[in-house]
Amino acid sequence: MSTDPTVAAEPLSGAQVKVQFTTRHPDISLPENTGPILVPTHLRRYGLSSIINHLIASEKPIPFDFLIAGTFLRTSLDEYLTANGISSESTLTLEYVRSLVPPLYLASFEHDDWVSSVDVLSKSSPVSQSSFNVVGQERILSGSYDGLLRVWNMSSQVIATSPPTGGGGHTSSIKAAKFISPSEVVSSGLDRTVRIWKYSEAPDHFSAELELLLELYGHTKSVDSLAVHAPSMKIISASMDHTVGVWSIDKSGGPAAPPQLLPSTQTTSTRSKRRKPTSSDSTPPRRGPLALLKSHTAPVASTIFSPSDPTVAYSVSWDHTLRTWDLLTTSLVDTRTTSHPLLSITSLPDLHLLAAGTSARHITLIDPRADATTISALTLRGHSNAVVSLAQDPESVWGLVSGSHDGTCRVWDVRSLKLGTGVSGEVGESVYTIKREGQPDGVRRVGGEGIKVFSVCWDREVGIVSAGEDRKVQINRGKSVMVGSSS
């Protein structure tokens, strides 16, 4: 076999095209001064991978993916040339990256009821501090329809559970839960409250406590989504009452709670007979919102802080809109109207895009900048039911994961485009589908219970963590799912 880097690794036959191979990764780069290589146009990814492995003299074959003009090559070179009207006399530039690694099933944590929300605390979590850097002490937070928060270690042991109803816990199902820091947690739910908890572990790290620090009142219906910006001591919430709440984490940082929203509101005669508080009472402070942002005309499904400016927030709603808010002035800045109800949101900050999950089974990517000329920059299709949760890939600017009521999570790379859509870059396809472990395809459980996924998050250390109607928190992990995909 020829060792001349200016020719392909296999004998040439039929139509040929010159290809200039490039990569951003020094450990798999070609020898210096490697020029364009003449290759058969019938080659697909496998054949092109063989050429790269030959040229870099790899001891073990490495599977590669190839990008042309920023999108993955999913056809033969000949089909690509034909579809794009490019002459075989041209020189193609192919960027090669290691192929994506499937996220393999790792473990499941069993619950007593549906699991509505999951979050992860690890050394790479956005809310972590420099002191939290012990491998093996990662924590998973889950919120359940049984009204309880649970904190798990990676050995599937519950090391902390929030108090039950009557003991200071939520009085109804929890819908959202997040770590504020390694020592604080926030939760919200059907009881219309947002609650902040002190989280503390025993010295041996095998047990911990959740102590209620603050109750926040202001919403009049279920609070289904939370976002945290710890440096500014702020939380934002999305509610079925059509509003976005803005809250202070500080016990003394917010106004008094609206009296009419407090539990057990009583008449004057009843209040006069109520016993006076004693020094033994331990009712936590109750505060109201810094602001309730009102503009949506239907339930607000999800909200996030802008990744580049914590004074800006985004919210999505059943009213089909994505709205941009200025938190300093509590004013509405921009409204983008889409074709379907929006149920979830995350950001792809390096691409200046927001991803919004819809009731119509797809994900739409939206450029929220004022000078954006179109509403939808890209549509990701593949789910067969509503897309209710989204999270960014922590290791790739191009990747995200989605959770759906179809019982699956899907991993996406926005450079992976579906063929035959008519317009280049219009529709993207998922690169992997994660199914619920132990649940046969298309099978409903006894009693009508299904396998809907309600929540998903993606952590660099722990992996993809998802939860849902099967009463499980499921962990899937691969060594760098999007390895080679980072910019």
From TrEMBL:
<dbReference type="GO" id="GO:0030687">
    <property type="term" value="C:preribosome, large subunit precursor"/>
</dbReference>
<keyword id="KW-0690">Ribosome biogenesis</keyword>
<feature type="repeat" description="WD">
    <location>
        <begin position="167"/>
        <end position="198"/>
    </location>
</feature>
<feature type="domain" description="NLE">
    <location>
        <begin position="17"/>
        <end position="81"/>
    </location>
</feature>
<dbReference type="InterPro" id="IPR015943">
    <property type="entry name" value="WD40/YVTN_repeat-like_dom_sf"/>
</dbReference>
<keyword id="KW-0539">Nucleus</keyword>
<protein>
    <recommendedName>
        <fullName>Ribosome biogenesis protein YTM1</fullName>
    </recommendedName>
</protein>
<dbReference type="Pfam" id="PF00400">
    <property type="entry name" value="WD40"/>
</dbReference>
<dbReference type="InterPro" id="IPR036322">
    <property type="entry name" value="WD40_repeat_dom_sf"/>
</dbReference>
<comment type="function">
    <text>Component of the NOP7 complex, which is required for maturation of the 25S and 5.8S ribosomal RNAs and formation of the 60S ribosome.</text>
</comment>
<dbReference type="Pfam" id="PF08154">
    <property type="entry name" value="NLE"/>
</dbReference>
<dbReference type="InterPro" id="IPR001680">
    <property type="entry name" value="WD40_rpt"/>
</dbReference>
<keyword id="KW-0698">rRNA processing</keyword>
<dbReference type="GO" id="GO:0005654">
    <property type="term" value="C:nucleoplasm"/>
</dbReference>
<keyword id="KW-0677">Repeat</keyword>
<feature type="repeat" description="WD">
    <location>
        <begin position="216"/>
        <end position="250"/>
    </location>
</feature>
<dbReference type="InterPro" id="IPR012972">
    <property type="entry name" value="NLE"/>
</dbReference>
<feature type="repeat" description="WD">
    <location>
        <begin position="293"/>
        <end position="335"/>
    </location>
</feature>
<dbReference type="GO" id="GO:0000463">
    <property type="term" value="P:maturation of LSU-rRNA from tricistronic rRNA transcript (SSU-rRNA, 5.8S rRNA, LSU-rRNA)"/>
</dbReference>
<dbReference type="InterPro" id="IPR019775">
    <property type="entry name" value="WD40_repeat_CS"/>
</dbReference>
<dbReference type="GO" id="GO:0000466">
    <property type="term" value="P:maturation of 5.8S rRNA from tricistronic rRNA transcript (SSU-rRNA, 5.8S rRNA, LSU-rRNA)"/>
</dbReference>
<keyword id="KW-0853">WD repeat</keyword>
<comment type="similarity">
    <text>Belongs to the WD repeat WDR12/YTM1 family.</text>
</comment>
<dbReference type="GO" id="GO:0070545">
    <property type="term" value="C:PeBoW complex"/>
</dbReference>
<dbReference type="GO" id="GO:0043021">
    <property type="term" value="F:ribonucleoprotein complex binding"/>
</dbReference>
<comment type="subunit">
    <text>Component of the NOP7 complex, composed of ERB1, NOP7 and YTM1. Within the NOP7 complex ERB1 appears to interact directly with NOP7 and YTM1. The NOP7 complex also associates with the 66S pre-ribosome.</text>
</comment>
<dbReference type="InterPro" id="IPR020472">
    <property type="entry name" value="WD40_PAC1"/>
</dbReference>
<feature type="repeat" description="WD">
    <location>
        <begin position="380"/>
        <end position="416"/>
    </location>
</feature>
<dbReference type="InterPro" id="IPR028599">
    <property type="entry name" value="WDR12/Ytm1"/>
</dbReference>
<feature type="repeat" description="WD">
    <location>
        <begin position="140"/>
        <end position="162"/>
    </location>
</feature>
<feature type="region of interest" description="Disordered">
    <location>
        <begin position="249"/>
        <end position="292"/>
    </location>
</feature>
